[in-house]
Specification:
With 354 residues, this protein is an alpha/beta fold. The chain has helices spanning 16-27, 41-49, 69-91, 104-113, 129-135, 173-180, 199-207, 209-215, 247-252, 263-272, 289-299, 313-325, 327-335, 342-352, and strands at 3-7, 31-37, 54-57, 95-98, 118-122, 140-143, 157-159, 188-192, 217-221, 237-240, 256-259, 276-278, 303-305. The longest helix is centred in the first third of the chain and has 23 residues, at 69-91. Bound molecules: uridine-diphosphate-N-acetylglucosamine. Uridine-diphosphate-N-acetylglucosamine is lined by residues 11-13, 16, 123-124, 192, 194-196, 221, 242-244, 247, 260, 262-265, 268, 281, 286, 289-290. This is UDP-N-acetylglucosamine--N-acetylmuramyl-(pentapeptide) pyrophosphoryl-undecaprenol N-acetylglucosamine transferase.
Length: 354
């Protein structure tokens, strides 16, 4: 039986593509194992969402800026490499597949030391630091965007698009409404501030609630620790830290979305043809990857964009009005998008061992 070690974490975008691949890999007879951090979001997503055995290793953040933790973290990364090296020695996988994030770097280095082929996937137009480092040790790099290819060595990258979980496309509108306690008299607006939530979006939404609730029923995915208990009994408003199992039904019940521009999320909304208003993470808080993602979608007529610097109660309400008015047009543009068979492309390459 062929063995594959999966790795990636730190935020859900570095894990959910694995969730799309796992059922098919199992059907093909692969023996799967996951190496992640001791307590990152990847641990609960894998342990609760699959029966793939999970192993936690030490991990440190790699920063481009000065921070006192920069002194301690290289030791944590070195410890992670040693732990991953031992684990890989026990599992003896045929390959390692990394979806990026800092925890993946020690696993990739350990795999390279053991001469195990490494595959990685990059979801954004520009690679993150973890994937930039990992690419030096990888045989092939799968990328979501064609524009990402130029950041890697010639011939190394394959455009596969974004692997999307099958179940996300099979949700039920009725089940979604019933789970949310909603009726069908008003459209459902889902707000998803990235897998870790977004403070500024949460504030603007909560400030605009009285106006929003006149026109929409609201699902607010606000991230861990961001629930507002005062709003628990607000009619037509449901808040969640994260939605795992019920997400397919919730998206099936969704008419409009306000979302961060994380790559996996926006390709999911696009595939589901749900009109989206994107509020990308700022350059101050990131390398600007979400801005590029959002601009690429905007150019193709798949979304409207509201920059966080311009986000106020007024601009939020105004942007939503424009989104509603442009709905049919946007959905027509989305119809022209043909998703690549991402899961199969990735599986074919990993299986062929090239
Ligand atoms: C802050 C940060 O570093 N963000 C990055 C991170 O975003 P983030 O982790 O938010 O990633 P994405 O938006 O790409 O993916 C989030 C995933 O989580 C899922 N989900 C989310 C909320 C929820 O309640 N339930 C649920 O299942 C979504 O369906 C999606 O599959 O990785 C992305 C892909 O590299 C990057 O583009 C983002 O810039």
């Amino acid at each position: 039986m062929k063995k594959l070690v999966l790795t990636g974490g730190g935020s859900a975008g570095h894990v959910t593509p694995h969730l799309a691949l796992i059922p098919k890999l199992k059907k093909m007879g692969w023996d799967l194992h996951y190496i992640g951090s001791v307590d990152g979001i990847e641990k609960s997503l894998i342990e609760e969402g699959t029966n793939v055995p999970y192993y936690g290793i030490s991990s440190g953040k790699l920063r481009r800026y000065f921070d006192l933790k920069n002194i301690k973290d290289p030791f944590k990364v070195a410890a992670g490499v040693a732990q991953a090296y031992l684990k890989l020695g026990k599992i003896k996988p045929d390959a390692v597949f990394s979806k990026g994030g800092f925890v993946a770097v020690p696993v990739v280095i350990a795999a390279w030391l053991r001469k195990i082929p490494v595959y990685i996937h990059e979801s954004d137009i520009t690679p993150g630091l973890a994937n930039k480092i990992s690419s030096k040790f990888a045989s092939k790099i799968f990328v979501t965007f064609d524009e990402a290819k130029k950041h890697f060595a010639a011939g190394q990258a394959i455009v596969t698009g974004s692997p999307i979980r099958d179940e996300l496309l099979q949700g039920s509108n009725e089940k979604g409404l019933s789970f949310l306690g909603f009726r069908s008299h008003l459209p459902v607006l889902t707000i998803m501030g990235g897998s870790l939530g977004a403070r500024k979006i949460n504030e603007a939404v909560r400030e605009s609630l009285p106006e929003l609730l006149r026109s929409y029923q609201i699902v607010h995915i606000c991230g861990k620790g961001n629930l507002d208990q005062n709003l628990n009994h607000t009619e037509g408003y449901r808040q969640f830290e994260y939605i795992q199992k019920e997400l397919p039904d919730v998206v099936a019940a969704t008419d409009f979305v306000i979302s961060r521009a994380g790559s996996n999320s926006i390709f999911e909304w696009l595939t589901l043809k749900i009109p989206m208003l994107l509020i990308p993470l700022t350059r101050a808080a990131s390398r600007g990857d979400q801005i590029l993602n959002a601009q690429s979608f905007e150019k193709q007529g798949f979304c409207h964009v509201l920059y966080e610097e311009d986000l106020t109660k007024e601009t939020l309400l105004q942007s939503l009005k424009q989104l509603k008015a442009d709905k049919d047009n946007m959905q027509r543009n989305m119809e022209s998008f043909k998703a690549s068979d991402s899961v199969d492309l990735i599986l074919r390459t990993i299986t062929s061992g090239k």
